[in-house]
Design brief:
By secondary structure, this protein is of the alpha/beta class. The strands form 2 sheets. Strands 1-2-3-4-6-9 form a 6-stranded mixed beta sheet, with helices on both faces. Helix 2 packs across helix 3 and helix 5 crosses helix 6.
Length: 272
């Protein structure tokens, strides 16, 4: 896969793991509208690529992302419309580039991992929280900083936070915009695991590689089933599970798993 968006979003591949890197270290990886568009395009490419099994999302040079960059210069540059007011341009862009990118990431049937160093604020925090797993450095910090900028939550924050931490805690985080340390975020269930900063990259690489070795069809179905379960009754969930198992047991990977179990070895999954 090639690099994208004038290198502001780097797309790199190692084996079955694709790493997407926000690459604006001079602005703590604030995400421009062109970067949101590049993120959407990259995710769509990954969705079509059978050899891409896991996505890691990170920021360059020690910060995940300070949020969305909606400054007038960025908005005008992106759309080529300096005659349109910054406020109107920003609002329109949120509905197009931002929301479509977030939906593409949310709907991706392959597992996603956020690798968070430094700060993840506003849109940056919610992009991270929208991933299936969030691995953070011990010194990472998170904030729903929107209210301090006179803004409401975006990038799916209003949907994600109540599901991750409960409605009242979500309101506290959103009303005050306070900073959370990585251990605090871990205790709330916003972060999956925390490691020393010096170990983070290696640990994330190990966990991504482990996940990429799992049966791709099974992992995809597990992800989608868990996501859908939030809106199902128990009876509906059981029906969904029966259909899912029918799909899984028809795969070549299921047969390989059974052979490996009988032969007392690790299975080698191909995605078939």
């Amino acid at each position: 896969m090639a690099q994208a968006s004038k290198n502001k979003l780097l797309v790199e591949r190692e084996g079955h793991v694709v790493t997407l890197t926000f690459n604006r270290p001079e602005r703590r990886n604030a995400i421009t509208m062109s970067m949101f568009a590049a993120l959407k395009s990259a995710v769509e490419d990954i969705a079509r690529d059978p050899d891409a099994r896991v996505v890691v999302l990170r920021g360059a040079d020690g910060s995940f992302s300070s949020g969305a960059d909606l400054t007038p210069s960025e908005a005008s540059e992106t759309r080529g419309r300096p005659d349109v007011s910054p406020a109107a341009t920003s609002t329109a862009l949120i509905g197009v580039e931002v929301n479509t990118a977030i939906l593409a990431l949310h709907r991706l049937a392959k597992p996603t991992i956020a690798c968070v160093e430094g700060i993840a604020a506003g849109a940056g925090a919610n992009v991270a929280f929208g991933c299936d797993l969030v691995f953070a450095a011990e010194d990472a910090r998170f904030s729903q900083i929107f209210v301090k900028r006179g803004l409401s939550l975006d990038c799916g924050g209003t949907w994600l936070l109540p599901r991750l931490v409960g409605l009242q805690k979500a309101k506290e985080l959103a009303f005050y915009g306070d900073w959370l340390s990585a251990p605090e975020a871990l205790a709330l269930g916003l972060v999956t695991r925390v490691w020393p900063a010096a170990e983070l990259a290696d640990r994330v690489g190990e966990w991504a590689a482990r996940l990429a070795r799992q049966a791709p069809v099974a992992v995809s179905i597990i992800k989608q089933s868990l996501d859908r379960s939030m809106n199902l009754t128990m009876a509906e969930a059981l029906d969904q599970e029966a259909v899912a198992q029918g799909v899984c047991t028809s795969t070549l990977d299921f047969r390989e798993a059974m052979r490996a179990f009988a032969e007392k070895r690790e299975p080698e999954f191909t995605g078939g």
